Amino acid sequence: IVLDEAMKVVLDGHDYILGKGEDLFIPAGSQHRVVGLSRPCRWLEISYGEFLESDIKRFEDKYGRV
């Protein structure tokens, strides 16, 4: 759920522009990226089921994380 003005979500190769109060479901296993279009750019992430941080596969990260 977008808490500030705007953000872009790239989900399995498709771009979605979301405004304040909008949401997008991201299925497990999908490749996704969040891009802030406003400052600040905050969102509320709600996870369902069980997951581990070690399950995350980073494809690209400007901070050098893998």
Write a concise synopsis of the structure shown.
This protein is mainly beta and 66 residues long. It has strands spanning 6-11, 14-19, 32-36.
Structure report:
The chain has 66 residues and is mainly beta. The chain contains no helices and three strands. The protein has strands spanning 6-11, 14-19, 32-36. It has a three-stranded antiparallel β-sheet, with no helix packed on it. The N and C termini lie far apart (26 Å). The mean pLDDT is 89.
Number of helical elements: 0
Q: What's the total number of strands?
A: 3
Give the overall pLDDT as a whole number.
Answer: 89
Secondary-structure-derived class:
mainly beta
- Give the fraction of residues assigned to helices: under 10%
How much strand?
A: 25-35%
Following the backbone from N to C, one meets helices and strands in this order, namely EEE
The side-by-side strand order for the widest beta sheet comes to: 2-1-3
Helix and strand layout, with pairings?
Layout: E1 6-11, E2 14-19, E3 32-36
Antiparallel strand pairs: 1-2, 1-3
For the structure shown, list the relevant keywords.
single chain, 66 residues, mainly beta, 3-stranded antiparallel β-sheet
